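> run fold Cation acetate symporter
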Amino acid sequence: MDIQTWTYLLVGLTFILYIGIAIWARVGSTKDFYIAGSKVHPLANGMATAADWMSAASFISMAGLIAFMGYDGGVYLMGWTGGYVLLALLLAPYLRKFGKFTVPDFIGDRYYSNVARTVAVICAVIVSFTYVAGQMRGVGVVFARFLEVSINTGVYIGMIVVFFYAVLGGMKGITYTQVAQYCILIFAYMVPAFFISFQLTGNVIPQIGFGGTLADGSGTYLLEKLNQLHVELGFAEYTSGTKSTIDVFAITLALMVGTAGLPHVIVRFFTVPKVRDARMSVGYALLFIAILYTTAPAISAFAKTNLIETVSEEEYSEVPAWFNNWEKTGLLSFDDKNEDGKIQYVANEKRNELTIDRDIMVLANPEIANLPNWVIALVAAGGLAAALSTAAGLLLVISTSISHDLIKKQIMPEITEKGELIWARVAAGFAVGVAGYFGINPPGFVAATVALAFGLAAASFFPAILLGIFDKRMNRQGAISGMIVGMLLMLFYMIKYKLGGFGGGVEEDWWFGISPEGFGSVAMMVNLTVAITVSRMTEAPPQKIRELVDKIRYPQEAVEE
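> ok
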């Protein structure tokens, strides 16, 4: 069978599975809709959390980032993985002990303020929409390449599938769909890695092949070969870095605390029966995520080596079919500047003739390596599973923020459970529509700021949650001031140095030499400083709130719950 038939078959089967789970998991209560009735097994929650976390960015883009950034791309691995350690140690068990439906719910009750709740809702919606727009676009790109439909048609198909299982089953439907999606995406990621590792290094385990020698008998190490290819083409060595130490530190920290503050990840720990289960879920999720994250650097090195050796200095008229297919998507382009008919891929921008979008490295990797058609189709199904799983989690955060934290808690407190459930489904449908719109009409600022969603989460949620758990003296005035100042400062820096607003600026103008991707660390520190200062200058929280903080911090009580 050809690639397209395999893709229709595998993607069709996975979609039938997702819809079947949605029908099975149809819910009738708000508790099931928001937190799956708090009945999810820790193992299933670990898999769902891993799928929720490993978005199109992890599945499609991370290996591409490392392939083109080399050593510098390692900050994403360290930051995202470290974020889960922070979650396990500092947040997950205590948030589960608090027992609320959403992050704004925690902030609203902990800081005894609907203003704090509203600020948290606004932060959650900004962070989630920033993130989800990229996921829906990723769905469209995968469909466009492998099913040969337009990107917009691909987005529509993705919207229908997500709408079905998010609106029907809420968190319960999303959780069990994400379990299936994890199995699909990790299988799809690992199978080509095994094949290509064996082809290149003779070792089937990609993590071992990554540090091993080439299978051609030369005794040359893979990374040594890649360094050599890079230098010959005028690039810096693959294993060398160009970022300053302070920027690497800032980006890593921003990604860590941003991960720990992302509302769609945190809410997953409300779905398990006990506090101990929340901690176990984090452990399982770390294990499941580590499988993909330790493979990504190997995929990057394999893909970059194969790409350079396949296309560099080759006749354009003789390039393989995959080259022309990716050209049609606009993610790969060749400009024969010297009109010699050969592809020059070099570091010098004036001489370079090949432009490659880093997002295609994972998707095109099996084709470049001449793997069987079913493996290529499997990667397409895996990419869709990754994008859809994260999109569904984010959409649920948006819908619960509207139906629970705004409608139920503030605008219509007397609303019945049935009425709240209807609002939750209407809000989910609305969120799917808006996310689809951004997927079809991606404004420049959305594409540019997807990676900065972590900075926004670091600048807003993380300090408020951390201080809410560990600082009894923290009051509503301090938390609200910190969140507003942190979020505004991060938005200002993003708009100025990423989007060219407020007079723009270049790398030399960055504050403390820190890039926009790492500035979430600075905004977080400002948030913490403002929050602590204001809280100490204003009235202490009520006694019942102090007792509440003591209660959620007692480990023994937490275990016995």
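The radius of gyration is 24 Å.
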